[in-house]
Amino acid sequence: MEAQAQGLLETEALQGRDDDTVASADFSSMLSEEEREELKAELVQLEDEITTLRQVLSAKERHLVEIKQKLGMNLMNELKQNFSRSWYDVQTTTAYKKTHETLSHAGQKATAAFSNVGTAISKKFGDMRRK
């Protein structure tokens, strides 16, 4: 049963397997010369578009860095903001609220207990001095 279950779980990405299948298939014999030329032209166009998009993305990333520098935003400020946001998110969770409430209540009880012990010890020392 376990061997069957393991066989059902794919360890390789589907994208990679599809690419391998397509790469190993020979479609060239199924295409006419005209279709082949159209596909080559489309391939060149797609490669050009991808190159253009990479250039545009690179320019936008540079512009983003420039704007952040002008605004005084740096890595340390971003880390502080992310930490503050994460800490706020933690504090607003139900688990944190319950834990905080429980520990706060326990702290109050412990403070009261220490106060009572301190008072009792003071009374005992007072009694011992009087004797």
TrEMBL record:
<dbReference type="Pfam" id="PF04201">
    <property type="entry name" value="TPD52"/>
</dbReference>
<keyword id="KW-0175">Coiled coil</keyword>
<feature type="region of interest" description="Disordered">
    <location>
        <begin position="1"/>
        <end position="22"/>
    </location>
</feature>
<dbReference type="InterPro" id="IPR007327">
    <property type="entry name" value="TPD52"/>
</dbReference>
<protein>
    <submittedName>
        <fullName>Tumor protein D53 isoform X6</fullName>
    </submittedName>
</protein>
<comment type="similarity">
    <text>Belongs to the TPD52 family.</text>
</comment>
<dbReference type="GO" id="GO:2001235">
    <property type="term" value="P:positive regulation of apoptotic signaling pathway"/>
</dbReference>
<feature type="coiled-coil region">
    <location>
        <begin position="29"/>
        <end position="63"/>
    </location>
</feature>
<dbReference type="GO" id="GO:0005737">
    <property type="term" value="C:cytoplasm"/>
</dbReference>
